[in-house]
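Anyone? Bumping this.
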Amino acid sequence: MTNGERSYFDPLVLARLSNLYLRARWVVEGIMSGIHRSRSKGFSVEFEEHREYSPGDEIRRIDWKALGKFDRYFIKEYEDETNLRAYLILDTSASMNYASNGITKFEYGCILTASLAYLILKQQDAAGLVTFSDRIESFIPPRARRGYLMEILRAIERRAPSGETNLGKILLEVAGKMKRRGLVILVSDLLDEPEEILKGLRLFRFKGNDVVVFHLLDAAELDLPFDGNVLFEDMEAANLKVTADPQAIRKIYRKVVEEFIDHLRKECRENSMDYQLLSTSTPLDHALVSYLGWRG
Amino acid sequence: MSLFFLHPLYLYGLIATSIPFLIHLLNRRRVKRIRFPAVRFILLSQRRISRTYRLRHWLLLALRSLAVLLLVLLLAHPIFQTGVGLFAGGGSLSLVIVVDNSLSMKWSRAGEGFKQAKEAARLLISSLKDGDRVALVPTNRSERGEIRLRGEREVLLKELDGIRISAGTADFSSALGKAYELLREPAAQKEIWLMTDMALTDWDRFSIASLGQHDPLIPLKIIKIGHQGEVLNATIKEVKTQGHGVGVGMPVQLQAWIVNFSDKEIKDLPVQLNIDDQAREQKLLSLPPRGESEVSFLFNLAQPGEHNGYIMLKKDGLAGNPTSYFTLQAEEKLKILIVDGDPQTSLVQSETFFLTRALNPAGERGASLFLPTVIISEGLGSVSLDSYQALLFCNVPVIPDAFLPRLRNYLQKGGGLLLFLGERIQMDDYNTKLFQSSPSILPARIREKRNLSEAAGEKIEGADTAHPALQGFADEILKESLRSARVQGYFRTDAISGSTLLSLTNGDPLLLEKKLGPGRALLFTTAADRDWSDLPLKTAYLPLIQSLVSHLSGGQRGKMDAGITVGEGKVFSFPPSYVGKSVRIIKPDRKEREITFAPNGGKASASFQENDLAGIYRLVPAPGEAQGTAQIYPANSPFLESRLETIAERELKAKLDPIRAEILPLESLEKGGKRSDLSLPLLLLLIATLASEGWLAQRF
C-alpha cells in the first residue's frame, strides 16, 4: 500500500470530512475499487441442496432443469431465502469519547459503523443500527431499502458519547429484540466485565447469528504512555480515581490489557465469532477488509 | 576507637540526604489529572504491582539517600582510629602541644607525671612527618621567647627539655588561646594536644569566655596524666605575725596554718621555721583528715632591716607545696623622749606613768618597739633631740626660750611632737611661743580651761578613723572603749576643720594635728595622766598612744610580708628621684632582670611581672645607678595548687564546650594507635550504591 492510499483511509483524514455519508462512501468506494474483481461474489442468497418434491411444495420452486436430467421432481433448497440482515451495534458510552491522537474512539466507531452500513446496503442487504450506553439509545431494525442508509447515518450523527457502559445487559436486550437471525456487528471498546460481554455475544451465536466484534481501543489505552505522577479519573464512573506512576506500572498494565484482549479473542474464536482489535490509529480499510474477509 | 572527620564542615551536607525524600514528596504533591477510560486496568495493575513496586520504590529512595550520605561523608574525609596517635592522613599537620607545667604536675603520678607528660609530647614530636609543624606551649611560661610552629624536631625536643614545672597555677586560657592563635595559619590538618593532670584548681580558673577567639572544629585531645593512689597531701595555707610590728630585739610571734587535703590523718608532721636561711625552730604537728591546724613560733631578730624566712613541712613522700616564704622588716626601737612637767616622788602619781606603760607594756626594755626616756623640764637644755623619733610633753608649764628654736628645727627635720596639757601649763606662754610666733607649732589657740565634775565629764564622741593614726579605731571594741572614757578637765581650743582627730560630745577638740613640713605636732587638750580624764584606764589608751607615737615617728613599725602569689605582678613605688633609673631584680633562681622607673602621679613606679618562681626576690640598684635601700619580697605558690583533686571529665568537657575535646588516658598514647582513611572504601561503596540505584531504576 502506498503512502497516498494509507492517508486515504487514515482516520484523521476521514475525521476532517464533516459528512458521515461522505466518510462512509470514501472508505467503501476506496476499498471496492481495490477489490473490484471479487465484487460480484455472493451477497445474494445461495443455493444449498435439492430434495425431492412432496405434495404441498410450491410449484415455482421445482427445478425444471433437474426434471429434464433425472426425470424426477426436485425442489431447490436455499440457505436463506432473504437478504443478509446486519445489526450494527455501536457503543456510545462516555468511555468512547477518549482520544489521545486527535480522533476519539467514538468518532472512529461512527465512521466504521457508517462505512459498514454503506457497504451492506450497497450489496442490497439489510442493515440496522443499535446505539447504546447503559441502555439502548436507539434501535433501527435492518432494512434493505434505498435511502435507509441516510436514516442510519442520521441516527449515528445524533448521538454523542455519554453514560456508562453496560454491554452485557445491552447485548441480551438486543438479542431479545432480534426477530430473525442475521449478522451482528459490535463496535465497542468493551470496557465492561468480559464475562458479561461474552455472555451476551454467546446468546447471539446461540440464536444462529454471526457475530463480528470490532474492539476499539485508543493507542494510549494500549500503551499507557504517560509520565510523572498521574491522578487517573474514570470517564464513566465519577468515583473511580486512582493515583499512579504510569512509568512504574506500564509493563504490568500492558500485560493486563493484553490478557484482557487475549481472553476476548480466545473466547470469540472458540464461539466462532470474529474478533478484530482496532486501535484508533489503525486505518479504516483494515477494519473493512477484515469484515470482507469474514464475508469472503 | 573513634571516628573523626578531616573536613567536618562538609557534614552540614548531611541535610542533603533528605533531598530524595523531598523530591519524592514534591512529586507526590505535583499530580497531573487525566480522564481515562481504562482506569480499571490501572487499578488491576497497581494491585498486582503494589507490594514489589513499593518495596523497590523505597529501596530506590534509600539507595539515593545513601548515595548522598556517602558522598557527604567522602567529602568530609572520615578517619577511623584505634588507639591514640597523630593524624596519619594526607596533607600537612599543624600541631600545638600544650604542656601543663603548673605546680600540681609535680606530684602527679607519684612525682613521675610531668616526666611522662613530656615523654608523651616527645612521642608525638617523633612521629611527625615531613611538612608537619609543631609548637610547644607551656601553660606557665617563664621565658619570653617567641612561640611558633616549626618543623625541626631537634629544636622542638630541645624546647621540650627546657620546659620546667612552675610554681604557679596553670593558665589554660592563655595557653589554649595561644594555640588557637598559632593554628590560624592555614594547614591541611590541625590538632591541639594538651597534657594535664586535670587539677581542679587549675581548671576552676578556666572558662570558655576567657579563651577569646577559637575554632571549635579543631580537635582538642587531652591526655590525662592524673594522680595515682592515696597520697598524703598537705601544704601551708597562711603565715602571719601576731602583735604590733617587728622590731629588733622584740619577740615576734609567727603563726602558720597547715592544711591537710588528704583523707588520712597526718601525724607528727615536722614544721620548721627558717630565718635568714638558718633553722630557728621545729615543731611537730598532727593534721586531721581534710582539716587544718595552727602552729606558732616565737623568735627575736637581732639586726634591723630586711630578713627573709620560710616555713617548711619536712616530711618525705608528702604531696603539696611544703614551703611558704615571707620577709620581715625589722625596725630599730623607736626612741621616745617624754618630758614630765609635773614629776612626783611616787611613780604611780607621776604625770608620765600611764604614758610610759602604754609605750612599753611589759616593762622590759627589749619587749617593745618603743624605747621611752623620761626627763623633767629642766633637762631639755642638755638633751639631743635628734636621738629621738618623737617628743612627748606632759603638763610642762612653759616652753624654755632657748629650746624653742631647737624644737622648730627638730620639727622641720621630720620630728614629731605630742603635747599633753594639764593643770600646770601656762596658757599664755604656750599661745605666745607656740601659736603666735611664726611658724606656729600649735594647731589651734589654747583658750580657757574647763574643769567639770567627774559625773559631768564629757565623752569622746568623734574620731577621724580615716586618719592614718586612728585607722585602728574603726574596730568597734576600740571605738566603744574610747567612747566610754570621760574627760573632766581640758583646755578649749578653736575647732579647726580637718585638723581635729578626736573631739568631745560638746564638739570641743580633744586631739588636733598640725603638719610642719615633714614633721608634725599633735595637741592633746587634756592631761596624759588620769587627773583630768579616765582615758589612761581604758583599753583604747595603749593602742591610741602607740598609734599616735608611731605616726609621729614616721609610721614605720616593722612588718611581716607574706608576699605575692606566683604569677602576679609586683608594683614598686619609689620617690620621684628614681624616674628614669633602673634597678635589678634577682629572682630566686639567681637570674637577674632589670626594671626602669617611670613617672606616675608624682612618684616613680615600675612593675615586674616575671614572678614565676616561689621564693625571695631581691631588688638592688643597677650598677651605676643611684644607690638606694635594698628591698626584698617573697612570692608563694597558691596554696590551692597543692590540692590534687581533679576535675571530672564530664565537667571539663562541659567547660570546653563547644570545643570538641577528647579526654584520653596517658597509657593509650603510649600504646600507640592506628588510623585508617575511609575514603577509598566509601568511594567503592558509593559506586556500588549508584550502580544498584541505576539498575533498580531501570527495573521500574
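Late reply, but here is one note on the structure posted above: DSSP finds eleven helices and ten strands in chain A.
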